[in-house]
Amino acid sequence: MKMRSLICRTVAIVLCTSLAFAAPTPAPVPEATTHRLDIRPDPAAKWEADLENVQKVLESAAGALWVYFPGRELKPILVEPKGGPIVLFNRGKNGEFRVRLNTGERYWSQYSYQFAHEFCHILCNPVDDDTSNKWFEESLCEMASLFALRRMAETWKTDAPYPNWRGYASSLRKYADERIEKAPLPAGQDLAAWHREHEASLRREPTQRELNEVVAVALLPLFEKEPAHWQAVGFLNAAAVPTPRSFATYLSDWHGRVPAEHQPFVRQIAAKFGVTLPAPAAEPAK
């Protein structure tokens, strides 16, 4: 009896520990949208993998975000396996977006991570302007990669591109979670304090993956809880602004461009950085 009691207590401890570290359940994925996303892997490139399989992976990665843009239309996206990862400012001859990855073989998690990031840049309407606050877009796109992989890890359990790919779901989740575990905020420091410490460095060099990932991990719960607000990133960039702006002004400009239903969400993001954006006078208090 003593041995049975000890085993029961041990099982209970293990279960409680597992529950304590369980990731929050993401919001439900909406029904698939009917608007078309045209992704075209370059058939002349050396993909080192079956082109149809590559197509399915890229569509799945982008689809994890695209589902939240029901009213959006995009030009075709031309994709090459090497030379990036990057979205080129120079479009194709018919206005197509041009994306270069840096992957190959059947590294589906890597394909997904890279393409979701670059697809997020497309959704942000990239412009060639002052880069003082470009780090924020880079961080959002790092977060998009994590978001997409975690979504795919759920959908592929039952609805993978092919039935025999369902087993990849756990690998997709592991790929994302390993990056999340490596990029926490320092103990006792919130995002606002962290940003004050690193802002000057980020404004000088916006693409610092280790720093971008910290921001990405800090913002991921907001987007997983209310993913409909992904649409707000489509208003991040307007016409090119050649002169530097403070981050607070940058956020304020974004807040002023998004539709009213997304403004409270932008204020939530701003608040994470210690920036207070006033609600429009016409918006009722909650």
List keywords for this structure.
about 290 residues; mainly alpha; 2 domains; four-stranded mixed sheet; 9 helices; about 5% strand; globular; disordered N terminus
Structural description of this entry:
This protein folds into 2 domains: 39-123, no CATH class; 134-272. Helices cover 50% and strands 5% of the residues. The protein has a 4-stranded mixed β-sheet, with helices on one face. Strand 1, helix 2 and strand 2 (77-80) form a beta-alpha-beta unit. It has helices spanning 2-20, 51-66, 108-123, 134-159, 169-181, 191-204, 209-225, 247-257, 263-272, and strands at residues 39-41, 77-80, 86-87, 97-100. Mean pLDDT is 88; it is low at 1-25. With 286 residues, the chain is mainly alpha-helical.
Would you summarize the structure shown here?
The chain is mainly alpha-helical and 286 residues long. It is built from 9 helices and 4 strands; from the N terminus they run H-E-H-E-E-E-H-H-H-H-H-H-H.
| Residue share in helix | 40-55%
Taking the sheet with the most strands, its summary is: 4 strands, mixed
**Unreliable stretches, pLDDT < 50, 5 or more residues?**
1-25
Total DSSP E strands: 4
Radius of gyration: 21 Å
Terminal CA distance reads 57 Å
Q: Which shape, going by the Cα principal axes?
A: globular
Total domain units:
2
Strand order of the largest sheet: 1-2-4-3
Oligomeric state of shown chains: single chain
Mean pLDDT: 88
Helices and strands, in N-to-C order? Answer: HEHEEEHHHHHHH
Structural class by helix and strand composition: mainly alpha
Discrete helix count: 9
Strand content: under 5%
